[in-house]
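Lab notebook, entry 223. We have the chain sequence and a SMILES string for S-adenosylmethionine, and the next step in the workflow is to get a structural model of the bound complex before anyone spends time on docking refinements. Request logged below.

Task: model protein plus S-adenosylmethionine, output structure tokens.
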Amino acid sequence: MEQDLEKLRERVKEIQSEFAERGDATGWFEALYKEADGNNEIIPWADLEPNVYFRQWAEANELKGNGRSALVVGCGLGDDAKYLNDLGFNVTAFDISPTAIEWAKRLYGGLDIQFEVADLFEPYRGWLGAFDFVLEIYTIQPLPLTMRPQVIDAVAAFVAENGKLVVVTRGREDDVEPNELPWPLSRKDLSRFAANGLRQTNFQVFPPENDGEPDRWVIEYER
Ligand SMILES: C[S@@+](CC[C@H](N)C(=O)[O-])C[C@H]1O[C@@H](n2cnc3c(N)ncnc32)[C@H](O)[C@@H]1O
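Result returned:
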């Protein structure tokens, strides 16, 4: 099983580097979803379940939507959007990959979730500063380190006044130079959220489900 995951990850790295060589940092996501051709087992992160670390965090914090608006950034197949919908949020979820969004609609189109194809770097203007709760899971870490400040600024921009942001990511020490995809976040990387007017209100470290992987961090911010 772990060997299979390793193989999948190797294929992901191969596709990512093919696109990176052409100077395209995001095109590989669509290529991978297309290559999967409806088989989620080809995509390492697509397990058709809400993220296990976010779920533990949400349960421990008794997260409830109560009709508040939520935005899921880089939603993939939409499992976390569905989870937030189940918790009572009014959910919008977007991804740059049209194939992922079609797939999410096939899975969850019957629910009251607004799925959109959109690029984090060219968002709808009406989304800026518009959401009570923003959820970002594993979207920052697969984008190149050189883009990290730009990615963090773009994610932060969706959070409304008094709104919250939750980031789920692999973590690393500040002095560790990550050398392969996905590139975990450091506390120094995260300090960019403060520069965007977001105050850290909770930081939780979870041991990884698979041995040898970095810890997962779930971090909450408030504007
Ligand atoms: C590693 S996957 C994680 C997907 C999902 N959040 C999950 O945890 O299952 C990263 C996702 O971000 C999306 N993505 C990458 N760059 C993006 C961008 N610029 N705008 C919107 N979505 C993006 C990808 O298509 C992909 O679905």
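Notes for the group: Helices lie at 2-21, 27-36, 52-60, 79-86, 98-108, 148-156, 187-195. Worth checking against the assay data. The first helix runs from residue 2 to 21.
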